[in-house]
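Complex record, two chains
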Amino acid sequence: MKFLDEYRDAELAQQLAREIHRITTRPWNIMEVCGGQTHAIVKFGIDELLPKQITLIHGPGCPVCVTPLEVIDKALEIAARPNVIFTSFGDMLRVPGSTTDLLSVKAGGGDVRIVYSPLDAVKLAEQNPSKEVVFLGVGFETTAPATGMAVFQAAQKGLKNFSMLISHVLVPPAIEALMSSPNCRVQAFLAAGHVCAVMGYEEYFPLAAKYHVPIVVTGFEPMDILQGVLMTVQQLESGRAEVENQYSRAVRREGNQPAQELMRKVFKVVPRKWRGLGEIPQSGLGLTEAYSAFDAE
Amino acid sequence: MCLAIPGKIESITGDDPLSRMGRINFGGILKEASLAYVPEARVGNYVIVHAGFALSRVDEDEAQKVFEYLKQMEELDDLKEAGP
């Protein structure tokens, strides 16, 4: 596949790895923020290619993992109601609540359905006017444009039987929370490429300056991650702390303006609890007053 | 929900910017995705698709940069080996 296979070239990946070995003189701790990057690092054995001095610390960027127990329990309670079609991305079905998970609710007769796009949930609401259709809106800035558009379209269509249980989270406040912790060992970040494809990377300049950490916007293929590590190590070794963009084929500095515009209409920034991290101020998205009728809570 | 991969736009339906849909080819697998957030995207472009929405158009020039960088590195190494 174009724009995929060429970034998995083993020979070229080795070349990047050799350059990282050549320039590394000291131990460095680098955090990859996104769970998608962690997945690629493990799948392709990227950490094996790096010098012993470099430690990759896996970040909090997995929405499945950070969605708080209370939200899962609320989802389970709603999904078990008789008149509800409960819809969700497939990844959330096995996430355990206090006593059970969505898959078990489904097995017990609950109408739980996996959708690929939140717009499919809106379609279900149109097709089933006598049912309440609820969508579990979780994820980072990457899924927020999709869930935002679902709410926007539901409002345009005047749907009364569609709502969303929202637990959206934002990356930059999580980085800030990590960096402000006194025990923080992270010396540089690989920022999540697709989050930045939506939001751009303006927000990272003050973070890089305040905590003197290099932040490199990085993609998800092996060569992206190796180049991201190389760019961070180049900065660390020379004492720089700048924001750089490795993933320029998909990320512009200002991000995706139409997506941000829609998100501003539908969402407002709210405090959010993260599973494992606790509440982080201004780290989540909730519906604005204009769209509060679509809040399942 | 986290897998976002590049695919090629095969065809586009609808004119309204907010409801424009594309048929996207991911290495032979065709899927529908909303093009609401990539108003500039045309048939033949590659887009990164996430949860049913194209979030970014792949810039073909920028996509070559890492390969150019590696080529330059190789040429520098060759020069060093060749000596003065």
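Note: The CA atoms of residues 23 and 234 of chain A lie 7 Å apart.
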